[in-house]
């Protein structure tokens, strides 16, 4: 079994649920993919980090991050794999709301990242792209250059098109069709 096949099995077992749900986009769906159930599992996190690092390792990046909470375990897993592979990337996390005390930051982590740093924005599951665009906006406000957007799962509901229309390179490891076993 390949790394990708093993990760797909973990997603199907731990993250996929056939039930009615309202998504963060506000849309209703008859299934739910909770990527965090895979990316907080030790094996799932390692495999996701490994596969996702492979997709970005030659882009000359400085960092990897995205909107909390879905991106947090992914960015961390990629950062760990990047260290093991001798190509260290710094992880960062974009808050949903600006911190109200201390430094009042939008972005946490990211030590050493500065204006002009090249980054990839990561997501666990992308639907319309709205949450991803929030993360991109905050990263750009910090002066980061967005090289790519990478999702674990694309629900195939317009997210790719939204991001590509705005000029961002987008890729996902899996699609809804992969998860559901559709051709």
Describe this structure in words.
By secondary structure, the protein is of the alpha/beta class. It has a single domain, classed as Rossmann fold (3-Layer(aba) Sandwich). 38% of the residues lie in helices and 25% in strands. It has seven helices and ten strands. β5, α4 and β6 form a beta-alpha-beta unit. The longest helix is centred in the N-terminal third of the chain and has 15 residues. The chain is globular and about 40 Å long.
Roughly how many Å is the radius of gyration? 16 Å
Average of per-residue pLDDT values? 95
Number of strands: 10
Task: Determine the number of helices (DSSP H or I, runs of at least 4 residues).
Answer: 7
Helix content: 25-40%
> What is the third-level CATH name, the topology?
Rossmann fold
Query: Into how many domains do the coordinates divide?
Result: 1
- Tell me the span between the first and last alpha carbons: 20 Å
CATH class bucket = Alpha Beta
Shape: globular
Pattern of helices and strands: HEEEEHHEHEEEHEHEH
Note the beta-strand portion. 25-35%
Low-confidence spans? none
CATH architecture identity: 3-Layer(aba) Sandwich
């Amino acid at each position: 079994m390949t790394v990708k096949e093993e990760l797909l099995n973990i997603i199907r077992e731990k993250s996929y649920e056939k039930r009615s749900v309202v998504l963060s986009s506000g849309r209703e769906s008859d299934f739910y993919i909770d990527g965090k159930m895979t990316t907080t599992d030790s094996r799932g996190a390692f495999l996701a980090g490994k596969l996702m690092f492979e997709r970005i390792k030659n882009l000359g990046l400085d960092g990897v991050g995205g909107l909390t909470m879905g991106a947090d375990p992914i960015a961390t897993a990629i950062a760990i794999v990047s260290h093991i592979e001798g190509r260290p990337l710094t992880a960062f996390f974009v808050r949903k709301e600006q911190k109200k005390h201390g430094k009042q930051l939008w972005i946490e982590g990211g030590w050493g990242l500065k204006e002009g740093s090249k980054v990839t924005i990561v997501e666990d599951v992308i639907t319309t792209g709205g949450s991803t665009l929030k993360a991109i906006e905050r990263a750009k406000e910090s002066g980061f250059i967005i090289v790519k957007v990478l999702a674990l799962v694309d629900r195939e509901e317009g997210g790719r098109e939204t991001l590509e229309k705005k000029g961002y390179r987008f890729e996902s490891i899996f699609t809804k069709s992969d998860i559901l076993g559709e051709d």
